[in-house]
UniProtKB/TrEMBL annotation:
Top-rank lineage group of the source organism: Bacteria
KW Lipoprotein (keyword) present: yes
SUPFAM superfamilies: Periplasmic binding protein-like II
Species annotation: Peribacillus deserti
SMART domains membership: PBPb
Protein name as it appears in the record: Sulfonate transport system substrate-binding protein
Subcellular location: Periplasm
Family: Belongs to the bacterial solute-binding protein SsuA/TauA family.
Domain Solute-binding protein family 3/N-terminal: 47-263
Short name of one Pfam family: NMT1
UniProt keyword terms in alphabetical order: Lipoprotein, Palmitate, Signal, Transport
Xref: InterPro entries: ABC_SsuA_sub-bd (IPR010067), Solute-binding_3/MltF_N (IPR001638), SsuA/THI5 (IPR015168)
NCBIfam families xrefs: SsuA_fam (TIGR01728)
Signal peptide interval: 1-31
């Protein structure tokens, strides 16, 4: 069959037009699919990054797995990041690699003095009973006054640092009259057992473990000297943008704390393999503390301010700070 040139040209134009139209429609659908996928990906990628330490209350929450269930309905995932010490956790909070964390009382003071952008969102219960100055059972050190001139191990800038300063102050001893040995818990334990230090200042569960397994005697605990609280902290930007998520986290911390307080046997079974500390020591530690959250009352803020003032007085931090400046007033 023969076709005229005009007819062939018309047929060719029709085929090309149809092809272009189909491509355009396909491209439009692809663009829509890409947009939908991006939106779904964005929702999926929303996460709260939580910094924790093995010996803190957040590891209990992590082990129970309840927070993940609660935040799933809010479109949030939970990413857990482990830290060996509070200062490193605060640095991560500072640079935004985590959004939320918990430390002892002293690391936030050093971070504030360095200008880190974080806020206090809640306080933990006092745990002074397990924070102590330890000596060997046969040590000639019988009272706090006997610490004068002695080598004393403790973690610099930690809650144990403050406890020691307050104990010396109560005994009328100058900080300059001791030989401070800056040691993290692991190194402090070795130095204590080998007799390289005369006393060791540390917190539970290390206190309990050393009392039961290393021939240690508690010279004094934190009663009347230090409350030794945990503090729950958040990156300032994250707290401003996601107050509802922070509230859910705090609620779940309290729930997991209630569980821990009522289930010591199960609690120590969870913690023992993580901390590599025997269950008997962990049980002693659990029995002399109460897990939970306290609001940031004026009294608690005052406690924290007194610690900051002491560090400034000793020239451990370079400038005087006001703790209240970093209290999250939105809750």
């Amino acid at each position: 069959m023969k076709y005229s040139k005009r007819l062939l040209y018309s047929l060719l134009c029709f085929v090309l037009s149809a092809s272009v139209l189909l491509t355009a429609c396909s491209g439009s659908n692809t663009a829509k699919d890409t947009t939908v996928n991006k939106k779904a990906s964005a929702v999926k990628e929303k996460a709260i990054k939580i910094g924790y330490q093995k010996n803190g209350p957040l590891v209990i929450l992590k082990s129970l797995g309840t927070l993940e269930k609660q935040l799933k309905g809010e479109g949030f995932q939970v990413e857990w990041k482990e830290f060996t010490a509070g200062p490193a956790l605060l640095e991560a909070l500072n640079v935004g690699s985590i959004d939320f964390g918990r430390t002892g009382d002293s690391p936030p003071i050093f971070a504030q003095a360095a200008g880190a952008p974080f806020v206090y969102v809640a306080a933990g219960k006092t745990k002074y009973k397990g924070s102590a100055i330890l000596v060997q059972k046969n040590s000639p050190i019988k009272t706090q006054k006997d610490l004068k001139g002695k080598k004393i191990g403790f973690a610099k800038g930690s809650s144990s640092h403050y406890l020691l300063v307050k104990a010396l102050e109560k005994a009328g001893i100058s900080y300059k009259d001791i030989q401070p040995q800056f040691l993290q818990p692991g190194d402090g334990r070795v130095a204590f057992e080998q007799g390289n230090i005369d006393a060791w200042v540390v917190w539970d569960p290390f206190t309990a473990d050393t009392e039961l397994n290393s021939n240690a005697r508690m010279l004094v605990n934190g009663k009347g000297l230090s409350t030794d609280r945990d503090f729950f902290l958040a990156n300032k930007d994250f707290a401003n943008q996601h107050r509802d998520i922070i509230d859910i986290v705090l609620e779940e911390i309290q729930k997991s704390s209630d569980w821990a307080n009522s289930n010591h046997k199960e609690l120590v079974a969870v913690l023992s393999p993580l901390l590599k500390i025997d269950e008997k020591s962990l049980l002693l530690s659990a029995q002399r503390r109460l897990y939970g959250i306290d609001p940031l009352t004026e009294d608690i803020i005052k406690e924290q301010q007194e610690i900051a003032d002491m560090y400034y007085k000793l020239k451990i931090i370079p400038s005087k700070i006001q703790v209240k400046d970093l209290i999250d007033t939105g809750r």
